[in-house]
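Please, structure for the following, as tokens.
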Amino acid sequence: MRSEQIEKMSEKEVLGKILELLVRIDKNLDHLVPKGIPMGHIQSMKGEGVVPSGLDIMTLLSLPEHLRTTATVLFESGPATAEEISKITKKERAVESGYLNQLVRMKHVNKYREGRKVYFCVNHDSKND
């Protein structure tokens, strides 16, 4: 948002916009930080090489566009089947299944079966060295 736009807004509108942005930041942090671990503890663990890397921002940026799209959708939706991911990305199920299996081989994603369905979820427990 430009400073000219902010100057034209009332104080209440500015505060509302700030709150809206903070909520978005908070939601994004929930995806990036392992649940239930205080930030101070995470910082101290990073130096020791203990923090699981999973799918962090740098890893996502290093992926090709097609895998990044699939990984981002899986990241936002949580555990899902290839069919569920394909409905969001508007790609064929078989294509998404291939992309998800590539991410499994790269150890960014876990794969598990429940009955006849195969689910994929972001791997928060792996080290991506």
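Residues 8 and 14 are 10 Å apart (CA to CA). The mean pLDDT is 79.
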